[in-house]
Each structure stands twice: as structure tokens, then as C-alpha cells.
Specification:
The structure is a single chain. This protein is α+β, with helices and mostly antiparallel strands. The protein has a domain of 134 residues: OB fold (Dihydrolipoamide Acetyltransferase, E2P). Helix content is 47%, strand content 24%. It has four helices and seven strands; from the N terminus they run H-H-H-E-E-E-E-E-E-E-H. It has a five-stranded mixed beta barrel. A hairpin with a 5-residue loop joins strand 6 and strand 7. 15% of the residues are buried. The N terminus is likely disordered.
Length: 244
């Protein structure tokens, strides 16, 4: 400062330059703060919409849209009963042929054992996405979602479709939950799930199956049909033997 109390022109220039830089920094910080708040608000709104659209619950399902075509609620059970019925018929025919001393009994017996072979269980682990709970016309439910998978090296694998069908869903899963699916392979590489374990919450999600009375009635009908089939075959073979 000079003796007359006035600032040096160079000093005034430095002060103006410093004030300009300070204002620019404050504006930049203010703009960054506003953009960060906007990003957080957009992320929270997106996360809220995704959770509301994808949550599947038993008591109060978030989305219950009837499908265009009725959903078969128990295709796995129907296929299993048909396989057991066919295997029983083959074994019964083999037994009758053995009694009649027919050499064709051996391949029929082996074919019946192959049909009745136990199905291999598959366990897959991944992340659930596109969770959807559907209702059929006969009151059944179908839980469907896609499971994102990775191998041990962290490489992304192709997603697999998971379907669980039954009378009533017990438990819930959401998009983004880590799940462990236990079931068997279906058509097109999909998984017919028997149960789903949510690894994030430890909750087991499964379907309520038909009652004990219905299962016992089905078994009794199967046994009666096998007995009738054996009796008919025995009558046919005895008539053929008497004819010759």
C-alpha cells in the first residue's frame, strides 16, 4: 500500500482475480451438489418402481394379471403320474409274459425299469430377475422368473427360465435376490423348480401341493387300473393257450 492509503493496481488485480476464482469454485461446487441430489432422487424413484412392480407376495400380491391362456398348474405332477402309469403297465405286461413263457418279457421288463428310473435333481444358484406371479383359471398359481448366472471365474452365463407351479405359493422373492433353485430340467433348458431358497433372507419359497386325500385316491386308482390290465392280459393269453 502506498503512503496515501490507496492499493497498488497490481494488488487490486490479484484480488479481483482471486475473487473470480473463488466464485467459480463455489458455483462448481453448487452445481455438483444439485446434480448429485438429482441423481439420488432419480435412483430412489427407479428403485421404488422396480420393487413395487416385481415384488411377489402370498397375502397381498403386487401384480396378479390373469394370463391370456389358462396356465397348467401341475404339469410336472401329471407327467410324473403318466410316467409311473406307463412303467407299471410295462412291468405288468412283462410279468404276464413271463408266466406265459414269452421271450419278449425281458425287453419289456427292462423298458419298464427305464421308464420308472428316478429323475435327477438339479441345483442352480443365481440372481432372480423379472419375478412374476400368475393365476390360472382353476385357482392355481405359477411363479416364473429368470435367473442370472455366473461361473466360478465371474463370467456371465446365459440366464435360465425358472417356473414353479402349484396350488398356493408360500414365501416371496424379489428382483435382485440371490436364490438357490432345486428342481429338474424342463423343456428348452428351463428349470421346473421344486423349491427356491432365498440366500439373502434365508426364506424357503415353495408351492402347496394337493392334499393327502387326493394323492391316496390317485394311487388307489393307479393300483386298480394295473390290476384290471393284468387280469385282461391273463384272460387273453389263457384264451390263446386254450386255442392251441
Amino acid at each position: 500500500m502506498n503512503p496515501f492509503g490507496r492499493s497498488n493496481p497490481q494488488q487490486q488485480s490479484r484480488q479481483r482475480q482471486q475473487a473470480w476464482w473463488e466464485g467459480k469454485k463455489k458455483a462448481k461446487r453448487r452445481r455438483f451438489r444439485v446434480e448429485e441430489e438429482q441423481r439420488q432422487e432419480a435412483a430412489s424413484e427407479t428403485r421404488g418402481r422396480g420393487t413395487a412392480a416385481s415384488t411377489s407376495t402370498v397375502a397381498q400380491p403386487q401384480r396378479a394379471i390373469p394370463p391370456a391362456k389358462p396356465v397348467s398348474t401341475q404339469p410336472g405332477r401329471v407327467r410324473r403320474i403318466g410316467r409311473v402309469f406307463l412303467g407299471g403297465l410295462l412291468l405288468a405286461a412283462a410279468a404276464v409274459m413271463v408266466l406265459a413263457f414269452w421271450p419278449a418279457a425281458i425287453p419289456l421288463f427292462l423298458l419298464g425299469l427305464w421308464v420308472l428310473r428316478p429323475q435327477r435333481r438339479v441345483v442352480e444358484t443365481g440372481v432372480a430377475s423379472s419375478v412374476d406371479l400368475r393365476y390360472s383359471s382353476d385357482g392355481g398359481q405359477a411363479l416364473a422368473f429368470r435367473m442370472q448366472r455366473w461361473n466360478r471365474r465371474g463370467e456371465r452365463l446365459s440366464p435360465v427360465a425358472v417356473v414353479m407351479e402349484g396350488k398356493e405359493l408360500r414365501g416371496q422373492i424379489r428382483d435382485g435376490d440371490r436364490v438357490e433353485v432345486s428342481g429338474k430340467r424342463g423343456k428348452g433348458g428351463s428349470l421346473d423348480a421344486r423349491s427356491v431358497l432365498c440366500l439373502d433372507t434365508g426364506q424357503i419359497v415353495d408351492m402347496k401341493r394337493p392334499g393327502v386325500v387326493a394323492s391316496v385316491a390317485g394311487v388307489l386308482m393307479f393300483i386298480i387300473s394295473i390290476g384290471l390290465f393284468v387280469l385282461v392280459l391273463a384272460g387273453i393269453f389263457s384264451a390263446i393257450g386254450n386255442a392251441f
